[in-house]
Amino acid sequence: MASQSGLFEVKNRLSKTEAKAEVALAALLASTRRQQRKLSLVQIAKYLKVAMAYYGGLPEVAGLIGLSDKMLRQFLAIDKISPEVRHLFSTRKIDSVDIAVHLSSFPAKDQMRIAKGIVSKKASSNDVRDIKYLKESSPKSDVRNLVDKVIASKNIREYLVIYKSPSMHIGKEVYKKIRKSTGKGNSRLVLASVPNFKIAITADGKERLEKLARTNGMTKREFLHQLTGA
After folding, report:
1. pTM for this entry
2. Could you read off the pLDDT of 41-90 as tens digits, one per residue?
3. Which CATH number fits domain 157-230: 2.30.29, 3.90.930, 3.30.460, 3.30.70?
């Protein structure tokens, strides 16, 4: 009788674990494949870890919900976020996967400094990416100065294109393509330090890029991605 009771308890525990895994998988299906999410990134990461533990790992879960390993792994970036900043994700004051990924590469003290700019609506996901690239090219720079620099550049009638290139030659070849697309005098190379490059484009040059993008049936971002390979 005791053995039957023990077997029932084991089965009961297994059924509860299975139920939790199914709930987690359903939550992931509802929250990782659409722009409008009911769950915060912190909640999604929690469900992802439950599903990974039950189904065998990230590749298995990715296959079940129809996403690539790389895309699904981005949700785990939240685990590298400091508790203070993670709270901002929990309350959805910050709610971007891209921002979580970029922020996760910074130490805790810098994460909060950047997060303040995001919460105040002064900095966007693209700005955080730019701050990251600038920090990589100038590791000793104070991140507060970089945040101020990127935010200030938004008020200047120039558009910054930041990209990576494995060599100086390739980096400058990319610049030549962009200079040709924006027209004479509408772009300048302001940073060339392998692997990081930055080009400033005037408002007129930006309009030319947008027109070329539309002509080719692309968004400006897609067109720049084609030019830079980034």
Report:
1. 0.65
2. 999 999 999 999 999 999 999 999 999 999 999 999 999 999 999 999 99
3. 3.30.70
Q: For residues 104 and 94, what is the distance between their CA atoms, to the nearest angstrom?
A: 13
**Residue labelled with tokens 């897609």:** 222
Q: What is the dihedral of CA 168, 173, 174, 180, to 10 degrees?
A: 150
Tokens read off for 55: 């189904």
**Phi, psi of 196, deg, nearest 5:** -100, 135
Residue 37 burial (10 A CB sphere; 0-12, 13-18, 19+) = middle
Give burial (CB, 10 Å; 0-12/13-18/19+) of 146.
Answer: buried
What is the distance between the alpha carbons of residues 159 and 123, in angstroms, rounded to a whole number? 15
Pairing of strands 196-202, 187-193: antiparallel
Q: Are 125 and 100 in contact (CB under 8 A)?
A: no
Q: In whole angstroms, give the CA distance from residue 173 to residue 71.
A: 30
Instruction: Tell me the C-alpha distance between 179 and 161, whole Å.
Output: 12
Token pair of 157 as six digits: 């009638």
**Are 114 and 103 within 8 A, CB to CB?**
yes
